[in-house]
């Protein structure tokens, strides 16, 4: 538990809730606290999936705090001197990298405004569920003279393709939750995104953790290396997962004559 972040268990899922009232913006302190909660969930073997959501009504993570960015810009331009050392510990980039690399599924339950750094956090997640009435989802940074610097320019093209991502980012577009579903920015649209995310998370409680971790790692790396390298890694990893007890037990159960393929 921290000032900005609440972490709780819901069965085999860890639910990490970000608040920072009254506006719900991400900050350096918020990133560090979210990182700590995320790291604890990753290191807990009893956690099989992680759900990220917002703790303020109508806000997932509004965006990164513009005032903090302005302060950094002032220091870089010599407008003001750096009077204090930069905060130590993990920052925003570390947070999104941890989410993407986590060896277990991470689901964004987008319950409200999700722009800029907030949307970049959701893009680092494996699955995204949004409420249809969310007012704004997107990357509006070019409207204020900057661009998405937390992974948005790299992850969005992988989600919706280069052409649509360019149009989306260059124009600084935001869309509603319902529109995000139509565009493929989110995987599902649900009236209660947290409840739906927890339903999805429950699926992973009965899946082999090693198999899920390998599947996530291999799929995320697929576009970043030659096909031959990916296939070789996949074959090695497949053998390693076959050696695990969870895979052995699941395969024996699935091979029973009483079990049909639809039940697996």
UniProtKB/TrEMBL annotation:
Keyword terms, alphabetized: Lyase
EC number: 4.2.1.17
GO MF term set: enoyl-CoA hydratase activity
Pfam family, one: ECH_1
InterPro entries (UniProt xref): ClpP/crotonase-like_dom_sf, Enoyl-CoA_hyd/isom_CS, Enoyl-CoA_hydra/iso
Family under the similarity heading: Belongs to the enoyl-CoA hydratase/isomerase family.
Matching PANTHER family: ENOYL-COA HYDRATASE, MITOCHONDRIAL, ENOYL-COA HYDRATASE-RELATED
Protein name: Enoyl-CoA hydratase
């Amino acid at each position: 538990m921290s000032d900005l972040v609440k972490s709780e268990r819901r069965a085999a899922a860890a639910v990490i809730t970000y608040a920072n009232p009254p506006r719900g913006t991400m900050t350096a302190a918020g990133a560090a606290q979210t990182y700590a909660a995320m790291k604890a969930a990753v290191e807990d073997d009893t956690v099989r999936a992680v759900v990220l959501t917002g703790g303020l009504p109508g806000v997932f993570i509004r965006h990164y705090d513009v005032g903090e960015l302005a302060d950094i810009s002032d220091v870089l331009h010599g407008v003001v001197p750096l009077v204090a050392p930069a905060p130590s510990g993990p920052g925003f980039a570390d947070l999104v990298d941890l989410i993407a690399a986590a060896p277990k599924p991470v689901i964004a339950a987008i319950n409200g405004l999700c722009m800029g750094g907030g949307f970049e956090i959701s893009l680092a997640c494996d699955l995204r569920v949004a409420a249809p009435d969310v007012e704004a989802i997107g990357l509006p940074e070019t409207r204020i003279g900057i661009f998405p610097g937390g992974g948005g320019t790299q992850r969005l093209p992988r989600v919706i393709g280069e052409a649509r991502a360019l149009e989306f980012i260059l124009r600084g577009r935001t869309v509603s939750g319902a529109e995000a579903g139509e565009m493929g920015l989110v995987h599902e649209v649900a009236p209660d995104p947290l409840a739906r995310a927890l339903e999805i998370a429950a699926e992973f409680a009965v899946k082999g953790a090693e198999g899920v971790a390998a599947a996530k790692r291999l799929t995320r790396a697929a576009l970043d290396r030659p096909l031959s390298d990916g296939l070789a890694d996949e074959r090695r990893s497949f053998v390693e997962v076959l050696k695990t007890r969870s895979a052995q037990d699941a395969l024996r159960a699935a091979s029973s004559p009483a079990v049909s393929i639809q039940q697996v």
